[in-house]
Amino acid sequence: MKSSARAPFRFWSDNAQLAIKGSAHHVQRFWSVGFEEHGGSTAYIGHDLETLFARAGQDVPEIPHAEPLRPEEKIEMLTFAADDGSVPDLFRTPLQDTAAPEPVWRSAANVTVGITWEVAGADLDLYVRPTPSAQVVFFGHADTPEGRLLKDFTLSPGTDFETVAVKQPVDLARMQIAVNYYGGAQRHDGVRGELRLAIGDEVWATPFHIPAGRGNGGTGVEGVVRENTAPNPA
Predict the structure, then answer these.
(1) Degrees to nearest 5, angle at CA 208 with 207 and 209
(2) Tell me: the pLDDT tens digits for 12-63?
(3) In the 3-class helix/strand/coil scheme, how is the chain assigned residue by residue?
(4) Which one is predicted more confidently, 168 or 63?
(5) DSSP β-ladder status, 6-10 and 41-46
(6) CB 133 within 8 A of CB 146
(7) Phi and psi at residue 34, in whole multiples of 5°?
(8) Which end of the chain is more exposed for a tag (fewer CB within 10 A), N or C?
(9) Quick check: 76 and 153 in contact, CB under 8 A?
(10) CA torsion through residues 78, 120, 116, 67, sign
(11) Nearest to 199 by CA among 159, 163, 160, 172
């Protein structure tokens, strides 16, 4: 790509949607910052071929975004696959204001857990152990027989959630969830965020607070989940 070039780009077809609803934002950012690193910019990203060819070679405005590349020691991960409709949009789905009936949460199917947080430069990590005998799902062990980490953000995801999908029905009373302040921005009052849990297409939310002033790099967190002990009430 030559310097200052504008690139139209078609990134998926109508019959090959991405599994994670809202993924278009991340695909757009991936290609936009890639073009920018080569001295160009993006004029169009989408699946409409007529629009793509109409904009090719034209002097059209670039697509703006506010997420430039930042140097990070820890890899940010997004998982893409065919959309089977089982992963809800945790951010946009209306929240439930009443508890799920016990028969539902005792054998909850299509469970998804997600976190988001307020401090832009902080890196929080989600840990989920679907059953007491299951392996812990987290960024260092992203795919297990019981669950899969779909998104791992190294900065606040803003209008998105770091997400774990549970692969089989579980008793939510026995599932363990932990949030760790890994690193990044330091705050004297800690980090506040929100945890959301979905059963099918119904979503519940609760706030959390990690009072630590800085992250711990993930030291000992997997063991905390395995042993079912929490160093603070969050």
Answers:
(1) 135
(2) 444 444 444 445 556 677 777 777 777 777 777 777 778 777 777 677 777 7
(3) CCCCCEEEEECCCCCCCECCCCCHHHHHHHHHHHHHHCCCEEEEEECCHHHHHHHCCCCCCCCCCCCCCCCCCCCCEECCCECCCCCCCCCCCCECCCCCCHHHHHCECCEEEEEEECCCCEEEEEEEECCCCCCCEECCECECCCEEEEEECCCCCCCCCEEEEECCCECCCCCEEEEEEEEECCCCCCEEEEEEEEECCEEEEEEEEECCCCCCCCCCHHHHHHHCCCCCCC
(4) 168
(5) parallel
(6) no
(7) -65, -45
(8) N
(9) yes
(10) negative
(11) 172
Q: What is the dihedral of CA 233, 228, 89, 106, to 10 degrees?
A: -110
Residue 104 near residue 198, CB atoms below 8 Å: no
Question: Tokens representing 96?
Answer: 């439930």
Residue reference for tokens 């007529």:
50
Compute CA distances 111 → 24, 107, 144, whole Å: 23, 10, 15
Give per-residue pLDDT as tens, 181-205: 998 877 788 899 999 999 998 999 9
Question: Residue 130: left if φ>0, alpha if ψ -120 to 50, beta else—which one?
Answer: alpha
pTM for the structure as a whole: 0.67
